[in-house]
């Protein structure tokens, strides 16, 4: 099926499709979604649970507790469904049985050598109450894009899924066990989440190494002297950049050049419709976009706001570890200088590590996995460990350890902001606090830590606040208790902290 | 997502056709979940009996 249905050889490697017997050489197995949604509605207990979206969740203005408080979802409630350019005379989620879906994908290495990857993708049913929707049994696995290599054309694997989602936008007949009658079941995909490489693949953008590394805004990356890596500092005065650089010398953190749906789609079409390959390459590099993503054919998704940064990857797996690398003078191949005052003395860092390792003996297991020694066993740290370390251990452990107290203060400011992000309920005033606080934090970071290059993850903080308003990216909002919240942050598929949250997955 | 990948890892039983094996595993679990929903069953091989209580106390003698 799909656009390549009639082809006899691969577009990319020119290998024949069939073997000598006329059978396909490779197959991809997709597990259909519609029968499973039908089954869910046919089960009385499950159908009752799925009423959460319409009945149990109450939207209170100026408060954010769930994805259903996001501006994106609220806008959808007032707009008509469009399928293949045709407007259909009903609004999104007009029936209480309409299902809100999320899609997630990730690449993982099935074998120890980590050379091969396979890309499973799953659907999350947002109609279920937040405390159970990401449980293993409630997640709907759709299929896995087979390895051993990353797919060249991921959209061809999403094709059956998108066909089904379109069918679900129009509606399919299903049995409702609550009213004991047949009804037209509809379902809309409102969110796609995962780490940066996975989402870049789905959105068909160049990703974090491109000249426009951010998928939410149009900030242009510049190379640090002597390295190929691109960085996105806000202040670019006194920096060397290539002759081709056309961006501003100073970005205003309060008004970053955010991408909009219309602009994104216009750029996508410009790239796709370019006359020559060379022009296509040039445009795609300029915009950081590779082509038309298949998911853009769904009217319930908005590019790029339906694709927020994932909190776990952004903060716990990147920002905090990178900060630690700065403090220990190991961040990338920069010359940090022995006397840079943000650096901790090696002996000081070792002492902090020892206290960390020893602390796990006296911390109740309800707080999560034991924290390893941050100095000598840092490789063992999982996102959960980073989260606990940052929020509960580091504030006191780092106190008085820096040669200049401002670095400790700067870190505490970050912890305060992260604490707000992790609340179950975020008020609009708190979002304002976040906005102001994150801008200040990033500007201070640029001033203190490294005057001429900025790590991209710090800049993503600036985009986070917008995401909270538009889409509530933090699954943490869904956690039932404070100490299990970090497992939700792992995009979480279960709430049992005790159950195998050890090590890196 | 990360946790889901974690459960897929031990599910790969075939060294020769790992990806076909994984696909089959995914569609089979999906099938079982659907059957569970449609017929209101519990097909997880969970022992639902309560854990055996260790009785250290007898009516005559109480363990403190």
Describe what you observe in this structure:
- The complex is a heterodimer of chains A (505) and B (64).
- Chain A is of the alpha+beta class and 505 residues long.
- Chain A has two domains: 34-203 and 485-494, no CATH class; 311-484, no CATH class.
- In chain A, 34% of the residues lie in helices and 11% in strands.
- Chain A has helices spanning 34-42, 44-49, 71-77, 155-170, 196-203, 261-272, 277-287, 311-327, 346-359, 383-397, 405-421, 428-448, 456-471, 485-489; strands spanning 63-64, 80-83, 86-91, 99-105, 119-125, 140-145, 172-176, 181-185, 187-193, 222-223, 230-231, 426-427.
- In chain A, the strands form five sheets. Chain A has a four-stranded mixed sheet. In chain A, strands 1-12 form a two-stranded antiparallel sheet.
- In chain A, strand 2 (80-83) and strand 3 form a beta hairpin.
- Helix content of chain B is 45%, strand content 0%.
- With 64 residues, chain B is mostly helical.
- Chain B has one domain.
- The mean pLDDT of chain B is 81.
- Chain B contains two helices and no strands.
- Chain B has helices at residues 2-8, 18-39.
- Chains A and B meet through helix 1, helix 2 and strand 6 of A and helix 1 and helix 2 of B.
- Strand count, sense and closure of the main sheet of chain B? none
How many DSSP H or I helices of chain A? 14
The interface involving the most residues is between: A-B, 45 and 26 residues
Distance between the termini of chain A: 34 Å
| Overall morphology of chain A | globular
Quaternary class: heterodimer
Order of helices and strands of chain A: HHEHEEEEEHEEEHEEHHHHHHEHHH
Percent in strands of chain A: 5-15%
Q: Note the total helix count of chain B.
A: 2
Task: Please tell me how large the radius of gyration of chain B is.
Answer: 21 Å
Tally of separate domains of chain B: 1
Number of domains of chain A: 2
Q: What share of residues of chain A is helical?
A: 25-40%
Beta content of chain B: under 5%
Could you tell me the mean pLDDT of chain A? 80
